[in-house]
Amino acid sequence: MSDIATTMSRGGRRLPALLPSSQGAVLVLLLLFVAALSLAPLVRLAVTGIAPAGFIDLDRLADLLLKRRVVTATLNSLQVAALSTVIAVALGTLAALLTALTDMRARTAWVFGFVLPLMIPPQVTALAWVQAFSPTSPVLGALGLALEPGARHPLFSATGIIVLLGLTNAPLVFLTVRASLARLPASLAEAARAAGAGNLRLVATIVLPLARAGLLAGAGLAFVSAIGNFGIQAMLGIPARFPTLVTLIYRQMNAYGPSALSDMATLALLLSTVTVAALAFAGWAGRRGNLQVDGSGGTIRIPLGRARPVVEAGAWAFLLATLALPLSALVATSLVSGYGQGLTFETLTFEHYVNALFRHSQIREAFATSFTLTGAAVAILLVVSLFLGWFLTFRRGPEVRAAHMAAELAYALPGVILGVAMILFFLRPLPLLGFSLYGTPWIILAAYLSNFLALALRPILGGFAQVDRSLEEAARVAGAGFLTRMRDIIAPLVAPSLFASGILVFMTVLNEIQVSILLVSSSTRTIGPMIVFLDEAGSSTLAAAVGCLMVLVVFALMLAASLASRRLPKGALPWQD
Question: Nearest CA to 557 among 388, 385, 374?
Fold first, then answer.
């Protein structure tokens, strides 16, 4: 069949042509991939949560959702998500204004440090901050500000969860607000200054109102990320006896009885309802606040003048307090022989790193499993995203848009929800094959493919936007088939975007905990949940060593991607200008 699809005209309207056989086959495979891994598990979750017996039992739903522990966990989740979002919006907006509009020096290095916590696993962040405020904190101890032995830890509280979630999600707000600020034209600032407006008035009356769409979008992302963040809520909330929906779902995994799975599904559905409502509100507010401006003529620049050294010192002091303080405490804890010891030449040891890498079989196997599943997920997602990105760019039909929306939904929902959906969907034996994926590495891989397809797509779609199709069209005219053109023409053209996508997905999947915490078993564990298990078992020093190794891997990957940034499309790496 010719690659030039024939079209028919009826009533002056062009009807879509049939795709060539190779394109049609690839499209069908893509749709089946998304339907089986992203859509079907979520549908199964909804059915099990609402009607586990085949009909809607309102009495059961009311009895479960009105239980005191569920109401308390729901209110706690809304509280920490809302208040942490306020902190994230304040910090992220200020950071975006500082780096996008002013003449601050060494912006790239500062942004790298500011975005780094977004790439660090949340359970490692929580562990690092817990160590930072411990009685043996190397920084606070040197300043005489460390806690007294036996004192109540301030982070094991609602306030501690809110503050850490705010700091962790501030980069999300920063990225969206900075993107909005980059589109503001310099002519607006010139007009405001001509009317006598100072820098503060310019920001308050011109810049922030025009950037409110990005600000609201960032607030929505921060809220959703906070309400579904298992690592911080579990590491701080469980010891503090502060239940939230994600920790309640996690604890429901250990419940017994015929209603255990259906109750867990209902709780996950409640969490997903709150998440979707927050995303819908953020989208509605963003559309109402979206003001179209002409982005030509350069961008706004606000000189700091004499205040620049003070502002720069304050910015770097913030990074030292929020990055160097917890990471130094984490490193110090990993280098002492026993928890609670101060780091001295007498207590210094690398034993925990040796144990983590060579002697502790479960940790070694968790590292191997994580790297294997991550590599497999990246390889599969890059191929799927390459073809799906082509269809989304050049053959954007309703079925392709629906697949994209399903992938985005699976990525937007908290990972715990997807974990529950995967359990329900793959618990029974697979049709025709006769075996279940539950308790095997394959269910974790399936969850990774579902959860991170949208993340893999984003840099690739940016690469497709810059593709000139003339080479592909020439190859088509010369008789090259669809798969040949994708291999020889399209893939090399979007190779930088594929590289950026692979780096982002690899870092995210390797360190994730939200999805796999419910899917790991005694025989199949990944490195993210391993830190929680080690800390719960009292092996805090060993958990700190594993956390340091994970941070080192993230830092190395970010550094490697930064060194190759000149060959990548603009905006492919979130920490780059």
Answer: 374
Give CA–CA dist 165/117, Å, rounded.
11
When pLDDT is averaged across residues 527-554 and rounded to a whole number, the result is 89
Nearest to 100 by CA among 190, 178, 197, 214: 178
Q: Which residues pair with 302 in a beta bridge?
A: 102
How many CB atoms are closer than 10 A to CB 383? 14
| Confidence band, pLDDT 50/70/90 cuts, at residue 85 | very high
For residue 10, what is the enclosing H or E element? Answer: strand 8-10
Q: Which residues contact 152 (CB under 8 A, 6 or more apart)?
A: none
Distance, in Å, from the CA atom of 514 to the CA atom of 520, rounded to the nearest integer, reads 11
Helix, strand, coil percentages (3-state) for the chain, rounded to 5, are: 70, 0, 25
Nearest to 31 by CA among 498, 412, 397, 376: 397
The answer on pLDDT for 105 being more than 80 is: yes
CA distance 532 to 513: 9
Q: Which amino acid type is present at position 294?
A: D
CA–CA distance, 123 with 128 (Å, rounded to integer): 9
Give dist(CA 407, CA 313) in Å, integer: 42
Name the range with the highest mean pLDDT among 21-30, 275-284, 430-439: 21-30
Q: Is 508 exposed, middle or buried (0-12, 13-18, 19+ CB in 10 A)?
A: buried
Query: Locate tokens 């590292």: which residue?
Result: 367
- Burial class of residue 249, CB neighbours in 10 A (0-12, 13-18, 19+): buried
Cβ atoms of residues 131 and 545 within 8 Å: no
Question: How many degrees, rounded to 5, is the angle at CA 407 between CA 571 and CA 369?
Answer: 85
Max CA distance (Å), the chain: 87
**Tokens 């397809």 appear where?**
453
